[in-house]
Design brief:
The protein has helices at about 5-25, 35-45, 50-60, 60-70, 75-85. The protein has about 110 residues and is mainly α.
């Protein structure tokens, strides 16, 4: 495993641990969150902004993700985030279920 891969996995773990609850608390339960809604708590929590595309892939639908970042691989970026969702607090909202059945994500 490369250093870059390790850092990306760590970032995904942080995003999965902190972002769902923060978004739910700040913006309520919605089906999707906007880029501005994702960026605000990332900056406040001092999460690595270099990996904001992980948040973009996890929260908006794929077409909105494509508008935010032209060169990102949507499913590749969602995968590590999804892996760590089981350690994130569950709030009973399940938007990732459309792609990952059985995952309780904690954000709308």
């Amino acid at each position: 495993m490369s250093f870059r891969s390790l850092v990306r996995r760590r970032a995904a773990k942080e995003y999965a641990r902190r972002l769902p609850g923060t978004l739910l608390q700040g913006y309520g339960a919605t089906q999707f969150h906007t880029a501005a809604q994702i960026e605000a708590p990332v900056g406040k929590a001092r999460q690595p902004p270099k990996y904001i595309t992980i948040g973009y892939a996890a929260f908006p639908p794929e077409d909105a993700f494509r508008q935010l970042t032209a060169n990102g691989d949507y499913k590749f970026l969602r995968a590590p985030f999804k892996r760590y969702l089981t350690t994130a607090p569950a709030y009973g909202i399940d938007p990732l279920d459309r792609e990952y059945p059985g995952v309780t994500s904690g954000f709308g």
